[in-house]
């Protein structure tokens, strides 16, 4: 008698292909470009601080109403906003220290086109791609979420 056995396919390791451009020899951002970036980052920081303040008010209202679903959404917003604010503050500190626009990994200039799209970028595109591939191979994210007001309030002892 002929037996049929199922064939189990083994998934291949995820691959990521991308053309990586060498940034060696690219010019650093000019003073006028850096001033524009600072203005943009300061505006983004004000917006994120306002978001955090609004999230705290919303969290208090959701707690008072015992609205767990709303608390979950507010917590997610708070975590995301805190992370964005941290990145903005790091970028502003790099501007203050004269290291903004320089890749933290290869120490080459980050193209201004990348900084215009992602002003908090710490890495040039090739170094970021290598870091992303390494993170995927390790199995996920390297950052841990930070607790926001909703989770702090939810974990507080009840009276």
From TrEMBL:
Pfam families from the UniProt entry: zf-dskA_traR (PF01258)
Keyword Iron attributed: no
Keywords, ordered alphabetically: Coiled coil, Metal-binding, Zinc, Zinc-finger
Zinc finger (dksA C4-type): 103-127
Ranges of biased composition (kind: Low complexity): 145-159
Spans annotated as Disordered: 136-159
InterPro entries linked to this entry: Znf_DskA_TraR, Znf_DskA_TraR_CS
Segments forming a coiled coil: 38-72
Zinc finger DksA/TraR C4-type domain ranges (all copies): 98-131
Listed SUPFAM superfamilies: Glucocorticoid receptor-like (DNA-binding domain)
PANTHER family: GENERAL STRESS PROTEIN 16O, RNA POLYMERASE-BINDING TRANSCRIPTION FACTOR DKSA-RELATED
Protein name: Zinc finger DksA/TraR C4-type domain-containing protein
């Amino acid at each position: 008698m002929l037996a049929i056995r199922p064939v189990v396919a083994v998934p291949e390791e995820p691959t990521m292909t991308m053309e990586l451009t060498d940034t060696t020899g690219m010019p650093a951002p000019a003073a006028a470009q850096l001033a524009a970036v600072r203005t943009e980052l300061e505006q983004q920081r004000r917006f994120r601080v306002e978001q955090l303040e609004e999230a705290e008010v919303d969290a208090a209202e959701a707690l008072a109403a015992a609205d767990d679903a709303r608390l979950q959404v507010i917590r997610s917003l708070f975590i995301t906003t805190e992370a964005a604010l941290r990145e903005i503050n790091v970028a502003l500190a790099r501007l203050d220290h004269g290291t903004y626009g320089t890749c933290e990994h290869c120490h080459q200039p980050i193209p201004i086109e990348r900084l215009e799209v992602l002003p908090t970028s710490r890495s040039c595109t090739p170094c970021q791609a290598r870091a992303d591939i390494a993170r995927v191979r390790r199995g996920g994210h390297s950052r841990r979420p930070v607790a926001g007001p909703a989770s702090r309030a939810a974990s507080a002892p009840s009276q």
